[in-house]
Design a protein that fits this description.
Layout lengths: L9 E4 L3 E6 L14 H5 L6 E6 L24 E3 L2 E3 L4 E3 L7 E5 L2 E5 L24 E3 L2 E3 L4 E4 L2 E9 L2 E6 L12 E2 L8 E2 L7 E3 L6 E3 L3 E2 L6 E5 L5 E5 L23 E4 L2 E4 L3 E3 L7 E3 L4
Subcellular location: Secreted
Protein name: VWCE protein
InterPro entries: vWF_C/EGF_Fibrillin, VWF_dom
Length: 292
């Protein structure tokens, strides 16, 4: 690469390649010509450079990556699960099973706690040791830890097995907003409930307590409007549409639609069909109502 290297020199090239200068014996030179200092360092025959990849001894099981500019990893510390640990560092695993690890000479050694077999010594499990909570013997039956069951078929009482002991409690009931004499306990129910109000027997239409029976039809004051009492106690009303089919309809008080067959209207008075009456304009004339 344009730079002189002495015989036997070693150096590292980029890419972690180790190179060395190997020089063969120089050829005989005339005695009359003295060698210069530079010619003694730069052999002119047989000089060659041999390069090979840098060899790194694997001296530890968890080596750290090579530092910047270096080729071989370092064993002064440990690399465990992608995390660099210093020499002598003591740490625990992230899964929380209480295993303790230590970094020594580039190697990671882990030790797990020894847990005694059998049930847990108390109702709460140990922090590190996994154990089997004690079972519950209740009324001749065995239940595992955490099991929930009813008391002798009573669905209103719930029991739970906790560390060898059974705890029972009643089902919570909501507060009722009705008087106590209206409380009702239905079959298969655990809590009282308010009795359902009786079905309506009619419809109340005003503040005076007037009640119409179910199915009753009446007019609320307008002869063109009819109302009916529904089975659920509600009132349904509907107006009547009148169609006048004669040029001189007769309006009868209390009747919604004009009547074309009732009679005739003459000078503000109503006369029935075939009824005769004197003319207002001429008393000698007699008029008759004819309904067509």
């Amino acid at each position: 690469r344009g730079a002189p290297r002495a015989q036997g020199a070693r150096w590292t090239e980029p890419g972690c390649r180790s190179c060395a200068c190997h020089v063969s014996a120089p050829a005989a030179r005339p005695r009359a010509r003295a060698a210069s200092p530079l010619s003694a360092l730069l052999p002119v025959q047989g000089g060659r450079v041999l390069c090979e990849p840098v060899s790194c001894p694997a001296s530890c099981s968890h080596p750290l990556p090579a530092p910047d500019g270096g080729c071989c990893p370092s064993c002064s510390g440990c690399l465990h699960d992608g995390v660099a640990r210093a020499e002598g560092d003591v740490f625990s695993l992230p899964d929380g099973n209480c295993t303790v690890c230590v970094c020594l000479a580039g190697n990671v050694s882990c030790i797990s706690p020894e847990c005694p077999p059998g049930p847990c010594p108390s109702s709460s499990a140990a922090d590190c040791c996994s154990c089997q909570p004690a079972k519950c013997n209740f009324h001749g039956r065995t239940y595992v830890h955490g099991a929930r069951f009813s008391l002798d078929g009573d669905d209103c009482t719930t029991c739970v097995c906790q560390g060898g002991e059974v705890e029972c409690s009643f089902a919570p009931c909501p507060a009722l907003d009705c008087p106590q004499h209206e409380w009702h306990l239905g079959p298969g129910q655990c809590c009282f409930a308010c009795r359902a109000p009786p079905a309506p027997s009619g419809c109340f239409v005003d503040d005076n307590g007037v009640e119409f029976p179910v199915g009753q039809i009446w007019s609320p004051g307008d002869p063109c409007e009819l109302c009916i009492c529904q089975a659920d106690g509600s009132v349904s009303c509907k107006r009547t549409d009148c169609v006048e089919t004669c040029p001189y309809p007769i309006r009868i008080p209390g009747q919604c639609c004009p009547d074309c067959s009732a009679g005739c209207t003459y000078m503000g008075r109503i006369f029935y069909n075939n009824e005769t009456f004197p003319s207002v304009l001429d008393p000698c004339l007699s008029c008759i109502c004819l309904v067509r």
